[in-house]
Amino acid sequence: MIAIGVEGTSSYGAGFTRVAVSHGQHVVEVNRPDRAERRRIGKSDPIDAYAAARAALSGRASSAPKDDTVAGIRALHNGARSAVKPRTAALNQIGSILITAPETDRAKYGHLKGTDRTDALARLRPAGGAVHTAVLTALKSLARRVKELTAEHQALVKALDSVVSVHNPGLRAARCSPWACRSEGQPVQDDSRLASGATSGDARLCDSKRT
Questions:
Q1: What is the residue-averaged pLDDT of the chain?
Q2: What is the mean pLDDT of residues 36-55?
Q3: Do residues 37 and 165 lie in contact, with contact meaning Cβ atoms separated by under 8 Å?
Q4: Which DSSP string corresponds to 175-190?
Q5: Residue 169 per-residue DSSP state
Q6: pLDDT given at position 183
Q7: Residue 191's CB: how many other CB atoms inside 10 A?
Q8: DSSP letter (8 states) at residue 28
């Protein structure tokens, strides 16, 4: 056997790749066929297997398979990314509640922005009438959620930085945290492709063009 061509050595083909390499087989990464070719020849497991074999045999596929580091990068990246949407939702809910909150609450907290507002609301001690207490309780809960998700995201990004810096130091040059690119009230959703590989061309923590 000359080589084994595997599509997705760091995803669905990871287990097979790991076993093949452990048995001394030469495994090469096979890129996914473009959409035009898939429409022309069809899509099925046997067709994909033949295509991968032809790519490996012809030398068209020659890249070394991604190692287990990529799985760690993907896990940290997905964990950090999953904190962005709920944090944005909590910030939006705070804004919505303040719009319809009693006048005293709007006057006290409505003009605050970013971390000033979040910190102030997180320190609340709800008291007073039923409506007033309910509004402040909700605001306090949401503010604490924002702070917890922010801390969670920062811890995961720090761990991600550490792994990527060892695996591919050049990738960090393009790093931009989703919540450092804009104000706290307008977080940018991380849309990187770190998990798909370890090259600076196709993986960034934050697309600078969107900021």
A1: 75
A2: 68
A3: no
A4: ---TTTSS-TTSPPPP
A5: G
A6: 38
A7: 13
A8: E
